[in-house]
Design goal:
The chain is α/β, with parallel strands linked by helices and 285 residues long. It contains eleven helices and eight strands. Helix 5 crosses helix 6. The longest helix has 14 residues.
Amino acid sequence: MRIDLHCHSTASDGTDTPAELVRNAAAAGLDVVALTDHDTTRGHAEALAAVPAGLTLVTGAELSCRVDGVSMHMLAYLFDPEEPALLAERELVRDDRVPRAKSMIAKLNELGVPVTWEQVSRIAGNGSVGRPHVASALVELGVVPTVSDAFTADWLADGGRAFVEKHETDPFEAIRLIKGAGGVAVFAHPAAAKRGRTVPEPRIAEMAAAGLDGLEVDHMDHDADARTRLRGLAAELGLLVTGSSDYHGSRKTVALGEYTTDPEVYGEITRRATGAFPVPGAGGA
């Protein structure tokens, strides 16, 4: 089995619609794919209606978190999307995205970059607006060559010249909410140092004690040393080890299925989840 548990659609900052994502996942030879858009489940219905035969869809979301001043992401799998407490927190995070984007645009304007809200809004479409959309606007304007080049101290990286903080959930609260909604919690790309500061291992140990289920180890932003270190940490803390592409369509160079999760780990995730269940495709719409 080929299992990719971290993918994005146009419901957040990917470039494939949810329906295109599941069709492309099947075409890429995947057996299981997870839709984990940022702080939203808005793409689930479209994806579920389009899952091709031979592919199984795992519903989820990637929650924006912050601890000790460090931004981090928590992957939530197979939770009940209507559970009130987790739904309210997702809405709180999502509702802060528009004023945050507008504040980043204002900072960029002060730096002489003629980006506009209309441009960023067009790029985001119906998705939850975020830094990647602002970054894409910088690419369109020729300010930077790629989206990744916008995530530097000069521009949009944490603490960068045009960076603006947003509401982010405490990860311990996120774990509690995910568990309360019957879901499974996995710390996304925990050693992605090029994105900014990373969470120290003692804090990860505290999260494990609080109910964290796993660490996303095999990821494009982790080099071989980081993966070895994270595997050792996961073994020490009794955490599951996942692998995922973090696919964003054309917004990133990584391909669907470039990194995958072991079938036994996937099986354990499905055993632990009680809020929702994987959906096998019946041919799609």
